[in-house]
Amino acid sequence: MSDLDVAAVDRGVAGVLPPGTLYAVGGRVRDEVRTSLDKVSRPAKDLDYVATGLELDELVERLGRLGRADVVGASFAVVKCTFDGITVDVALPRRERSTGVGHRDFVVEAGPAISIEDDLARRDFRMNMLARALPDGDLVDPYGGEADIRARRIDLLRAEAFEEDPLRMLRAAQFAARFEYAVTPETMAAMRRAAPLIETVSAERLHDELVKLLEEARRPSSGLEVMREGGLLERVLPEIAEGIGVEQNEYHAHDVYRHTLATLDATAPGNLAVRLGALLHDVGKPRTKDGPHFYRHEILGEALARDILGRLRFSNELIERVAALVRHHMYRADPALADATVRRFVRRIGVDHLSDQFALRAADIVGSGLPKRGEDNEGFEARVSQVVAEKPALSVKDLAIDGAAVIEAAVGRGLLPAGSRGGPIVGKALQALLERVIEQPELNEPAALHAELARILEAP
C-alpha cells in the first residue's frame, strides 16, 4: 500500500469521527519514524487505529457512514471497517491489568474514559508505544519511543511485561535481528528472569515469531544470540543449544553452534526453507561426535529436523523440503563424476530443489570460517546444469513407455492375469527401466525399452 493510499484511508476514517479523537497506532507508526531517520521506505502492512472519547455504539454508527462496520472481539472493543475495498481496525483505547502469567490472564477495560497514553502503555516495548494524531500527523510519544528508535535499542517500560506475555521475549529477539537493534541490559536481565515462562507459550505463537526472525533478518544470528543470552534458546531450540562448545575438525574455525550461526547469516533473506536448512543442517553433530568426526550426522539431523519443525507447527510441505536439505547437505561435489552419477544426484535432490541445496552448500562453506579450498563446488554445479539442460529421464513418468505397456507385457508372459490393472511387478519393472535409462539415456525410446522390459520380465 503506497503512502498516498494510506493518507487517503487516514482522511476517510478521520472524516467520520470527531476532531482530535483518531490516532494511528502499531508497527506502522514505529516504521514511519524509522523511515524518517534512515530514509528507507517501509510501506504500511497494517492499518490500525484507536479512537478516544467515544462509546462503542457511537464508534460503530460513525464508521458505518463510511462503509461496513462490524464489532469483533467485543471485550476488546475493536471495529473492523471496510470501505473502498480496504479493511481497517479501529479500537477503543484500553487498559489491561494482569491477573496471572500469560497473555490471556488479563482484566481488560475499554472505553472513552481511557486516554491514548494509557492505551500505549500496555504495549510491549517503548519503540512500539507510539501513536500519530490524525489527520494533523503529530507524533504522540509519552514514553520515549522515538528516542529508543534513534538509539536503535529495545527497552521495556515495565520489567513485568515479559511475565504478562512471555512471547514478548521472543519478539525482542526477532526485532533485534530484523531491525539490527540492541536489547538494553535491563531488558535482557528481565528476560533472563522470565525465561522459563516461554515454555507456557503455544507452539503456534513461537512459530510466527521465529519465521519473522529467520525470513526477514539480514543477520538472523543476532536474534539467536539474544535468545541464548536471555535463556530462551535452550527452551525453544534446545537441539541448537547443544552445539555450544562442541568443537569440530581442522576444516572449521568455529564450534558447532557458531558455525551454525555463520552458515545461517550466509544465506539470503526471504527463502525460509534454506534459512531453516542452514539452522538445522548440523543439528545432528553434537549427538554423533566421535573424536573429530560426526559420522552420519546428516541422517540423525534429518530426523531431528523433522521433530523440531513438527514441534513448532511448520507445514508438512516445508518440513519435507528442509529435511531433504539436511539429509543431502553432505553430497560429493566432484566435477569429474560420471554423467550417470550426476543424473542420479539430480534425481535424488530433485530439479526444483537444486538451487536450494547449492545455496545451503555455499553458505556452509562460508560458515566454516576458513578460506575456500578450491572451485570444485562451482565446477560440480556447472556439470549439474549441463545435465539438467539435457532433460534426462529422472522419474518413471519420463520414460517412453508407461505402466500400461508393462502390464500388457506381463500379461502376455503369464506374469499377470488377463484384465489385470497392475501390481508390484509393474512398479519394480518401471524402476528397473528407469535405472537403465539413467545409465544409458539413449535407451529411452519405445523399441529399446520394450527390449529391456522383455529381459527384465524374463529374469528369474
Based on the coordinates given, report the CATH architecture of the largest domain. Answer: Orthogonal Bundle
Mean pLDDT: 94
Could you tell me the radius of gyration in angstroms?
29 Å
Counting helices, strands and paired strands, the structural category is alpha+beta
Q: Largest beta sheet: what is the strand line-up?
A: 3-4-5-2-1-8-9
Major sheet details: 7 strands, mixed
Strand content: 5-15%
Short description:
By secondary structure, the protein is α+β, with helices and mostly antiparallel strands. 51% of the residues lie in helices and 11% in strands.
Please give a structural write-up.
α13 runs antiparallel to α14, α14 (272-280) crosses α19 (354-367) and α22 crosses α23. The protein folds into four domains: 3-146, Beta Polymerase, domain 2 (2-Layer Sandwich); 152-236, Hydrophobic Seed Protein; 246-392, Hypothetical protein af1432; 396-458. It is α+β, with helices and mostly antiparallel strands and 460 residues long. The longest helix is centred in the C-terminal third of the chain and has 16 residues, at 424-439. It has helices spanning 3-15, 27-38, 56-64, 116-121, 145-151, 161-164, 167-179, 185-194, 203-216, 221-229, 233-236, 238-241, 256-265, 272-280, 285-288, 297-311, 316-328, 339-349, 354-367, 376-389, 403-412, 424-439, 446-458; strands at 22-25, 48-51, 68-72, 78-83, 86-91, 94-98, 106-110, 131-134, 139-140, 153-154, 182-183, 289-290, 293-294. The strands form four sheets. The protein has a seven-stranded mixed beta sheet with strand order 3-4-5-2-1-8-9. A two-stranded antiparallel ribbon has the order 6-7. Strands 10-11 form a two-stranded parallel sheet. The protein is built from 23 helices and 13 strands. 51% of the residues lie in helices and 11% in strands.
